C-alpha cells in the first residue's frame, strides 16, 4: 500500500503545482474564471517589427455587451515612444492593456500594430513581443532564479544574472543563504513589493520585448524605492513602445504623451506641460496630489 500511495501522493502534488502555475498566469491579469475566446485567424501572420507603432482606432469594448467600458478610444504610441494613461479607478485604464495583449477582442474599432490589425497577427508572436510588468507580480513557488528565467526559459545563467543586475536585485539575491536557488512565493521567501517589481523588471529585460506594458503598483512603495524602480523602468522602456498604466502623476511627467481617461473616454491628452497649461482635469489632479504629498511630508 505504501508503495502505491507514494506515487499517488507525488501525482497529487504535481497536479497542485501545475494548477498553481496556471492560476498564477491568469491572476497576472485578473482573468481567473474567465473564458478566453480569442483565436488565431486563418492565415494569421507573425509580428515582425522590432520597433512597432501601436494604434487604438475608435475602440469600443465591454466585458458584458450590456455595459460598455471603452467608449471610443483613439490614440497612437509612436514606435519606441511612451504613452501614460491616468484617470479614476474604473475608468478603463487596465482594460486598454488587456486588449493590447489580446485577452479580449474589441467590439468595434481596431487595434493596429504597424498598421496591421491585431486580429490578423498570431497570438504567439504578439504575446512574445509584449513584456508586462504587472501591478502585483505573482511569484511561482520555485526558486528566485526560476522566477526571473521565466521571461526566457532558454536563457543562460549569465543572462539571468545580467538581467538581475540591471534590475538592481542581483546583490539582494546573492546575499540570500541559497542565492539564486532560494525558494520564493507562497511557500518560500516573501519578497517586498519593490523586490517583486524588480523580479518582474528582470523577467521583462530577459524577454527583450519590443512592446512594454507597465501597470504601476498601487500599493505605495517608500519614495526611495519608488524613485529607484522608476529609474530602472525608464531604462527598460528606452527604445521600446511603452504603455504605462499610472496611478501616480509623479511617475508620468516624462511620458511622450499622457492620456486622461474618464468613464471609457479620453478627456484630455498632451505632455505634462501641455496638460498643466490647459488648466483642466489633469491640472486639478496634479494640484491635489501635490497638496496631499505635502501633507504626508509635513
Ligand atoms: P484601476 O485604476 O482601479 O485599476 P482601471 O481604470 O484600470 O481601474 P479597469 O480595470 O480597466 O479600470 O476596469 C474598467 C471597468 O471594467 C470597471 O468598471 C470594472 O468593473 C470593469 N471590469 C474590469 N475587468 C472586468 C472583467 N473581467 N469583467 C467584467 N468587468 C470588468
From TrEMBL:
Highest taxon listed in the record's lineage: Bacteria
Record flagged with keyword rRNA processing: no
Segments passing through the bilayer: 1-15
GO CC annotation, single: plasma membrane
GO molecular function, a single term: ABC-type transporter activity
Signal sequence bounds: none
GO term, biological process aspect, one: intracellular iron ion homeostasis
Keyword annotations: ATP-binding, Membrane, Nucleotide-binding, Transmembrane, Transmembrane helix, Transport
Localization: Cell membrane
Protein name, entry field: Abc transporter protein
UniProt source species: Lysobacter enzymogenes
Full-sequence portion shown in this chain: 316 to 613 of 613
Amino acid at each position: 500500500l505504501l508503495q502505491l500511495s507514494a506515487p499517488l501522493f507525488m501525482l497529487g502534488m504535481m497536479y497542485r503545482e501545475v494548477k498553481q502555475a496556471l492560476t498564477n498566469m491568469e491572476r497576472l491579469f485578473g482573468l481567473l474564471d474567465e473564458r478566453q475566446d480569442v483565436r488565431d485567424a486563418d492565415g494569421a501572420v507573425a509580428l515582425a517589427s522590432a520597433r512597432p507603432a501601436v494604434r487604438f482606432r475608435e475602440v469600443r469594448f465591454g466585458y458584458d455587451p450590456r455595459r460598455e467600458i471603452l467608449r471610443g478610444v483613439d490614440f497612437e504610441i509612436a514606435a519606441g515612444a511612451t504613452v501614460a494613461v491616468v484617470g479614476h479607478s474604473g475608468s478603463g485604464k487596465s482594460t486598454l492593456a488587456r486588449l493590447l495583449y489580446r485577452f479580449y477582442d474589441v467590439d468595434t474599432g481596431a487595434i493596429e500594430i504597424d498598421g496591421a490589425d491585431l486580429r490578423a497577427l498570431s497570438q504567439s508572436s504578439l504575446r512574445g513581443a509584449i513584456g508586462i510588468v504587472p501591478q502585483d507580480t505573482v511569484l511561482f513557488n520555485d526558486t528566485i532564479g526560476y522566477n526571473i528565467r521565466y521571461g526566457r526559459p532558454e536563457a543562460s545563467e549569465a543572462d539571468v544574472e545580467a538581467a538581475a543586475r540591471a534590475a538592481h536585485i542581483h546583490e539582494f539575491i546573492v546575499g540570500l543563504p541559497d542565492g539564486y536557488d532560494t525558494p520564493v512565493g507562497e511557500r518560500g521567501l516573501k519578497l517586498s513589493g519593490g523586490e517583486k517589481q524588480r523580479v518582474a523588471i528582470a523577467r521583462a529585460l530577459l524577454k527583450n520585448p519590443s512592446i512594454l506594458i507597465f501597470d504601476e503598483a498601487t500599493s505605495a512603495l517608500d519614495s526611495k524605492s519608488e524613485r529607484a524602480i522608476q529609474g530602472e523602468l525608464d531604462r527598460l522602456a528606452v527604445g521600446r513602445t511603452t504603455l504605462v498604466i499610472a496611478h501616480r502623476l509623479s511617475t508620468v511627467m516624462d511620458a511622450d504623451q499622457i492620456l486622461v481617461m474618464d468613464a471609457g473616454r479620453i478627456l484630455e491628452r498632451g505632455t505634462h506641460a501641455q496638460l498643466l497649461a490647459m488648466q483642466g482635469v489633469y491640472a486639478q489632479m496634479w494640484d491635489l496630489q501635490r497638496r496631499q504629498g505635502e501633507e504626508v511630508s509635513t
